[in-house]
Amino acid sequence: MLGDLDITHADEAWPDCDVLIENCVKAALAHCQTDTQHGRPFELSILLSDNDQVQDLNREYRQKDKPTNVLSFPALECDEPGHLILEPGPLHLGDIILAYGVVAQEASDQKIAFEDHLSHLIIHGVLHLLGFDHIENEEAEEMEALEIAILKDFGIANPYG
């Protein structure tokens, strides 16, 4: 069940992609063991931004002074990836912020459709909100396998292959 999904267009360069984003969020949640599958309401904010704002956030929160394609800010803790530590009331999963220029350039460089790359990054961002990470090799393999499976449902090729 999709709860309160707030998609904010802070950069006019973004194409109309709200339905694509909603479908990717639903798919990522459906592949994980979370209460969102059982009809519990949740909140999630996605900001479609520009490179400058994402660079500012990346510098402030990750000490990396460059834009990146997607930032995820989880609001809940997980006892293991995909298993949220739950409080009563609506689940506020967190925030995802994307930089249009980086996403578009990466799609062009990789010779893939913008929508396919955006789908991958939305799924990637949601998985981060659900406690998945890719710092350690084992974690990366688990997260990438899940991303590949979800993308396959959309007919999108393995982005890591």
UniProtKB/TrEMBL annotation:
Protein keywords: Cytoplasm, Endonuclease, Hydrolase, Metal-binding, Nuclease, Ribosome biogenesis, rRNA processing, Zinc
The note describing how and how many cofactors are bound reads:
Binds 1 zinc ion.
Per UniProt, where does Zn(2+) bind? 124, 128, 134
Entry GO CC: cytoplasm
| InterPro entries in the cross-refs | MetalPrtase_cat_dom_sf_prd (IPR023091), YbeY (IPR002036), YbeY_CS (IPR020549)
Q: Which cofactor does it need?
A: Zn(2+)
Reported EC number(s) for this entry are 3.1.-.-
GO molecular function terms here?
Answer: metalloendopeptidase activity; RNA endonuclease activity; zinc ion binding
Subcellular localization: Cytoplasm
Going by the entry's taxonomy, the superkingdom of the source organism is recorded as: Bacteria
Any Pfam family hit: YbeY
Q: What biological-process terms (Gene Ontology) are attached?
A: rRNA processing
The record's NCBIfam families line, in alphabetical order, gives: rRNA maturation RNase YbeY (TIGR00043)
Entry's family note: Belongs to the endoribonuclease YbeY family.
Functionally, this protein is described as follows:
Single strand-specific metallo-endoribonuclease involved in late-stage 70S ribosome quality control and in maturation of the 3' terminus of the 16S rRNA.
The name under which this protein is listed is Endoribonuclease YbeY
